Amino acid sequence: MGERALSFRAVAAAYERYRPGYPVRLFDLVMGYAGRPVRTALEIGAGTGKATRLFARAGIAVTATEPDAAMLAELRRCVPAGVTTRRAAFEDLLPGERFGLVYVAAALHRTSPEARWSRMAALLEPGGVFASFGGPIAPADPAVDAAVRAARAPFLGATVEVNADIVVHLARRRDGS
């Protein structure tokens, strides 16, 4: 686990207090892309649970992971009963349990890129959905922007702007992955 995954420990309470939550439209977009009921979800790098609450309040059984002890304490204090919390970085999760949805809210860049996508696929049930959302990425150089879009295209099923501050990237696990 990298140091970046633990960078909020001293400001966990302030993070919870001042960081805005996610709009219901985000949930609607993810569920619309899933195209079927989602019963279980795994959140990578849950922080204080801003996104966790959005999915858990809709009746999804959420397992929220967070490597930082201070953020995990805030997460446990703030999420609805029934949310399972684990102190773990993405890289520490063991294969075996699969979920209908695996999502990352503004924390994908805090995970190690080595084997990231094969690990994500292993956590998804067949036909399951991966969602990553956070601030929009807009490289100033048009050539870099085009290269980033081209590199993502084979892996992402959809990219949707939720509002001016949130973009969601979606992909579906193909059977046999």
Structural account:
This protein is an alpha/beta fold and 177 residues long. It is built from 6 helices and 7 strands. It has helices at residues 12-18, 24-34, 50-56, 69-78, 116-123, 142-152, and strands at 40-44, 61-65, 84-86, 99-105, 124-134, 158-163, 166-172. It has a 7-stranded mixed sheet. Strand 6 (158-163) and strand 7 form a beta hairpin. The longest helix has 11 residues, at 24-34. It is globular.
What is the tally of helical segments? 6
Beginning-to-end CA distance, first to last residue: 25 Å
Please state the oligomeric state of the protein chains shown.
Answer: single chain
Order of helices and strands: HHEHEHEEHEHEE
| Share of residues in helices | 25-40%
Shape: globular
Strand order of the largest sheet: 3-2-1-4-5-7-6
Would you tell me the structural class of the helices and strands?
alpha/beta
Tell me the β content. Answer: 15-25%
Q: Describe the sheet with the most strands.
A: 7 strands, mixed
Rg is 16 Å
Report the count of strand segments. 7
Q: Let me know the average pLDDT.
A: 84
Low-confidence stretches: none
Reconstruct the topology from this structure.
Elements: H1 12-18, H2 24-34, E1 40-44, H3 50-56, E2 61-65, H4 69-78, E3 84-86, E4 99-105, H5 116-123, E5 124-134, H6 142-152, E6 158-163, E7 166-172
Parallel strand pairs: 1-2, 1-4, 2-3, 4-5
Antiparallel strand pairs: 5-7, 6-7
Short account of what is shown:
The chain is an alpha/beta fold and 177 residues long.
Task: Describe the structure using short key phrases.
177 residues, alpha/beta, seven-stranded mixed β-sheet, 7 strands, 31% helix, globular
